[in-house]
Amino acid sequence: MPPKATSKPFDKSKGFESDMAQEQTTVTYAVSMGNPLVSRDPAKKFAYQVSIPYSELTPGTILEDRIFTSKVLLICRNLHRDELLASKKWKCLGTCGNDAKEIKFGYTVLMGPPKGTHGMGGPGEGALPLFLDDAAVPFCGEESCFQKTKVALESIHARNLLDLRLCENCGKGGDGIKKCSRCKSVVYCSPECQSKRWREHKKECSPP
């Protein structure tokens, strides 16, 4: 039986594991869960390190950003949907006040290797670390409340993109995170980390 995707809470202090198996890719899956439009129920952040065997990905998924993101994202969401919903007694983001029974996901951003480089992490070559920034909103399941998820998801997306990003070199997050001034696609926690990573990053770094 082929290996299945597995997941564990992400430990920022350790960063990305350097000794991951050759036949899998590692994705840091971060989720903002909740409704930031309501002060009594602010979004809660979760982060997991998901190991996905290449056997679960079709050959084309590591070549195109859109296809790759959709496939890997589906795996990550399926692994953690029930856990996220059970993490607390969530209320529907609508005005009904009922308990949440479903989750609406959206506004995902793929961070890490730039477009066209996913194949570099294929079997036998070592997996490149990837970062998926996701947003999730709990709701009761009714259509009227479902429509209101769009507004909440837009708010989560706007507020948390940079806050959830991790240093390209050491994997740390928090205050002090800054984008690469040239490509704007990766972030670093310090000039030291940027300098250490530059030899590898300069091969991929290009203005957006």
Automatic annotation (TrEMBL):
Q: Does the keyword DNA-binding apply?
A: no
Gene Ontology CC terms, in alphabetical order: nucleus
> Is Nucleus among the key words of this record?
no
Per UniProt, the keywords (alphabetical) are: Metal-binding, Zinc, Zinc-finger
Extract the Pfam families matched here: zf-MYND
Give the MYND-type domain ranges: 167-205
A GO molecular function for this record?
A: zinc ion binding
Q: What is this protein called?
A: MYND-type domain-containing protein
